[in-house]
């Protein structure tokens, strides 16, 4: 009897937790993510993303599972382009080569002091955050907030420790809060000071970076469809051979 009630208690708890968590999550992130329209067939976009990444992100964030030359081959970058994105140095202060891992130059201990948190390696961020939509929304959701150490906050990552590193390109957004008086609050962002890029250009940049980071999360994605089709073709040919063999073996038996 005791065991039975224990089981019942466990079941109730599990059910309770399972239903409570989605609700808690939904309540925590009142912001809807924007559709990043991730397109892994668009190599030009991913290649642009790789260049932006090297220029604006590698200073702080490593991609410790990626090598420059693998990225170059996958995305169709030529030798000149790949050289132009190598800025980092390894621990012996030797300039990284095209076969080097994409490790950021920043020592993580110093970084933790500067930003409060060390900038995480972004190899798997597209997977840990479940989608490219999160990255795209994050990159486009910085806004002015003078109460924060870097003067910015972020709609999808509250009190983030990262500065708005793309401010020069995007400009600065301001938060507008609308309350309909019935407890329904919507938060939107408005571009207050334009940057060097137009809204459309910056949007494309955020999509390029997102495509690149989704690719980096699982480089094999680019080849998976190709191997899938190859496997199906093989199975088809094998089926014909097997069928002909079967006919040959059984032709005298009736
Ligand atoms: C000056 C250093 C710096 C630069 C440059 C920088 N970041 Fe960050 N980034 C950070 C720090 C620090 C965090 C951790 C923030 C926190 O946890 O509060 C972070 C967090 C992130 C996260 C969230 C990771 C997660 O899942 O928690 C993403 C995504 C990200 N950065 C993307 C980028 C991209 C893309 C670029 C280039 C456009 C970039 N960052 C440039 C410092 C930097």
Q: Could you name the key traits of this structure?
A:
254 residues; Cytochrome Bc1 Complex, Chain D, domain 2; 2 domains; two-stranded antiparallel ribbon; 50% helix
Explain this structure:
The chain has 254 residues and is an alpha+beta fold. It has two domains: 40-219, Cytochrome Bc1 Complex, Chain D, domain 2, CATH 1.10.760; 224-254. The chain is built from ten helices and six strands. The protein has helices at residues 2-28, 43-56, 68-75, 79-84, 108-115, 125-128, 132-139, 167-170, 199-217, 221-250; strands at residues 63-67, 101-102, 142-144, 152-154, 171-179, 185-194. The strands form three sheets. Strands 1-2 form a two-stranded antiparallel ribbon. Strands 3-4 form a two-stranded antiparallel sheet. A two-stranded antiparallel sheet has the order 5-6. α2 runs antiparallel to α3, α2 crosses α9 (199-217) and α7 (132-139) runs antiparallel to α9 (199-217). The longest helix is centred in the last third of the chain and has 30 residues, at 221-250. The model is unreliable at 17-29 (pLDDT under 50). Heme C (HEC) binds next to α6 and α7.
Quick overview:
The protein has 254 residues and is of the alpha+beta class. The chain has helices spanning 2-28, 43-56, 68-75, 79-84, 108-115, 125-128, 132-139, 167-170, 199-217, 221-250, and strands at residues 63-67, 101-102, 142-144, 152-154, 171-179, 185-194. The protein has two domains: 40-219, Orthogonal Bundle (Cytochrome Bc1 Complex, Chain D, domain 2), CATH 1.10.760.10; 224-254.
């Amino acid at each position: 009897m005791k065991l039975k009630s224990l089981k019942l208690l466990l079941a109730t708890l599990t059910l309770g937790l399972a239903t409570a968590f989605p609700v808690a999550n939904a309540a925590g992130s009142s912001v809807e993510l924007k559709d990043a329209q991730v397109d892994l067939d668009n190599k030009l976009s991913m290649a642009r993303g790789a260049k932006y990444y090297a220029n604006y992100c590698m200073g702080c964030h490593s991609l410790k599972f990626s090598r420059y030359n693998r990225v170059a081959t996958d995305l169709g970058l030529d030798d000149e382009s790949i050289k132009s994105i190598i800025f980092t140095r390894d621990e012996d202060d030797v300039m990284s080569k095209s076969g080097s891992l994409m490790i950021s130059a920043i020592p993580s201990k110093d970084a933790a002091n500067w930003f409060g948190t060390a900038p995480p390696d972004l190899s798997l961020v597209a997977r840990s955050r479940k989608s490219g939509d999160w990255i795209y929304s994050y990159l486009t959701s910085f806004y002015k907030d003078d109460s924060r150490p870097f003067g910015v906050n972020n709609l999808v990552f509250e009190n983030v420790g990262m500065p708005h590193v793309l401010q020069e390109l995007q400009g600065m957004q301001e938060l507008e809060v609308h309350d309909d008086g019935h407890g329904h609050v919507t938060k939107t962002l408005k571009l207050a000071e334009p940057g060097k890029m137009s809204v459309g250009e910056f949007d494309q940049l955020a999509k390029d970076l997102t495509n690149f980071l989704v690719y980096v999360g699982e480089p094999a994605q680019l080849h998976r469809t190709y191997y899938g089709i190859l496997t199906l073709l093989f199975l088809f040919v094998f089926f014909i051979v097997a069928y002909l063999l079967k006919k040959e073996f059984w032709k005298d038996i009736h």
